[in-house]
Design a protein that fits this description.
CATH architecture of the largest domain: 3-Layer(aba) Sandwich
Strand content: 25-35%
Helix content: 25-40%
Low-confidence stretches: none
Number of strands: 17
Structural class: alpha/beta
Strand order of the largest sheet: 13-12-11-14-15-17-16
Number of helices: 10
CATH topology of the largest domain: Rossmann fold
Largest sheet: 7 strands, mixed
Length: 330
């Protein structure tokens, strides 16, 4: 079976393998192989590799052998369980307590590098968008997650975080230039702010959740960008006036209600600012409501140009999670 692999010179192989392992990018279901002086490392997310590796490498697709020796959860069960990896934790969503515990036991007993298993016990709720978790294995709900060369500590029971948005966050981060000023209105633990700062931007991250702001500060330190990150706990509607006409890049990742904060976004936007506006809308018109709301808030003070209409993912039947990259020019 052909799978995506990182191809590097053999002398750089161990360094590359270690870096990919630290970023949780190695596909453990397949063997790492050596051929003609090259090392081939199977990877789970080809799009994430460039953010993790600084050395010369090539992404290729090639046949590789499956690992016969690795025991997966499905090998210990009569079915293939559904789970999501976040650092050294596995996240499941099971209503039946007995089935949930059986899956958790199989995950821990398998060869996956996982020691914590959490079962979703509620929907995302409240102003801070957190959910309840049932701890089925492990000591606590704190994890360390790596994506695109950045490391994030977080407590899933105290903050909101979605690993499924890693590729989207990287897409936006690649638009940020060194020396720019970036403002994240709902920053969480810093999954936008930290990579922006690593690219050389001066960043402000605001969040109403005090735990998220503490993790944002810690993650800025972990990634060596604390000198370029200002973390503010508060309602962004109270903070925006302190950064009037400031931002070159502005992130609004609160898709169910971002439109309620557009007045603050316009306040913080500089003379030439790109707003990354997230929304959830029906598939018949996923972009129209957001674009109309932005124009209503920003015109005529700004000329409004929609540069990108991007579908992030399917959110629910007939509903899409989308992003509008919109340039505001005063």
């Amino acid at each position: 079976m052909e799978v995506p692999c990182v191809r590097v010179a053999r002398e750089a192989g161990e360094r590359t393998r270690t870096t990919l392992a630290d970023a949780d990018l190695i596909d453990d279901a397949y063997e790492i192989t050596v051929e003609d002086g090259w090392l081939y490392v199977p990877v789970t997310d080809p799009d994430a590799v460039s953010g993790a590796l600084d050395d010369d490498f090539e992404l290729v697709s090639r046949p590789v052998d499956e690992r016969d020796s690795q025991t997966m959860p499905a090998d210990l069960l009569a079915f293939a369980p559904s789970y999501e990896r976040l650092g050294k934790a596995a996240l499941i969503d099971e209503d039946d307590p007995e089935r949930a515990q059986t899956i958790a036991d199989a995950i821990v007993e398998s060869d996956l590098p996982v020691g914590t298993v959490l079962n979703k016990a509620s929907k995302v709720k409240g102003e801070t968008r957190v959910r309840d978790w049932e701890l089925l294995a492990g000591a606590d709900t704190e994890v360390v997650h790596r994506e695109y060369g950045c490391e994030f500590a977080l407590d899933l029971a105290a903050v909101y975080f979605s690993p499924r948005l890693a590729t989207e966050r990287h897409r936006v981060a690649e638009q940020v230039q060194s020396g720019e000023r970036a403002f994240d209105m709902f920053a969480g633990v810093g999954p936008f702010v930290v990579p922006f700062a690593k690219r050389g931007a001066e960043c402000v991250g605001v969040d109403i959740n005090a735990d998220a702001i503490e993790y944002l500060r810690e993650n800025a330190r972990r990634n060596g960008v604390e000198d370029r990150v200002t973390a503010i706990r508060g309602d962004v509607r109270d903070v925006a006036s302190d950064y009037e006409n400031w931002a070159d890049q502005l992130v609004m990742n609160l898709p169910h209600s971002a439109d309620e904060f557009l007045e603050s976004a316009v306040t913080a936007a500089g003379d030439d600012c790109v707003v990354h506006y997230y929304d959830i809308q029906h598939e018949d018109d996923p972009f129209g409501p957001g674009e109309r709301a932005i124009r209503a808030a920003a015109e005529p003070e700004y000329e409004v140009t929609v540069e990108t209409r991007h579908t992030v993912r399917s959110y629910a039947p007939h509903e899409l999670n989308v992003c509008l990259d919109v340039r505001l020019e005063r």
